[in-house]
Amino acid sequence: MRLELVLLIEALVVLFGGYIYLNIRGSFLSIKQALIWFLLAVLVGLAALNVPVLEKIADLIGIKTASNMMFFFGILFALLLAFLQARVLTGQQKKVTRLTQESALLQEKIVVLEARINNIDKL
Fold it and tell me: I need a surface site. Which of 24, 28, 32, 40 has the fewest CB within 10 A?
């Protein structure tokens, strides 16, 4: 890999890391979610510096080129993130349903109590 490309990748990794940091400080991204992205940035940075190692790993697992292997692992990573986000979303949907039900029950209690107060006032 050409030195210019390695430097470009490393610069993009640093910029991406800074972007993640700014999102954490602005409370747009939780630390738990940010760790996944920081790990990805570090792995991409290390991969760009160790192309011969990538080529050997690709050869060992039967993939013709290192770029094809990185593309394959990128797709796997995206699928993993999609699955994890689906799990989080499911949990959030359950919590919203529970809160909606609790709110409806509390509103019903308020109506009943207001009716009792009105009946007491009429006496």
Answer: 32
Separation CA 87–CA 62 (nearest Å): 32
Classify residue 69 by burial, with Cβ atoms within 10 Å: 0-12, 13-18, 19+: buried
Residue 109, CA distances (Å) to 65, 112, 113, 115, 117 in order: 67, 5, 6, 10, 12
- Report pLDDT digits (tens) over 75-101: 998 999 899 899 999 999 999 999 999
User: Which amino acid is present at 102?
Assistant: E
**Residue (of 23, 71, 74) closest to 15 by Cα position:** 23
Report pLDDT digits (tens) over 1-10: 678 888 898 9
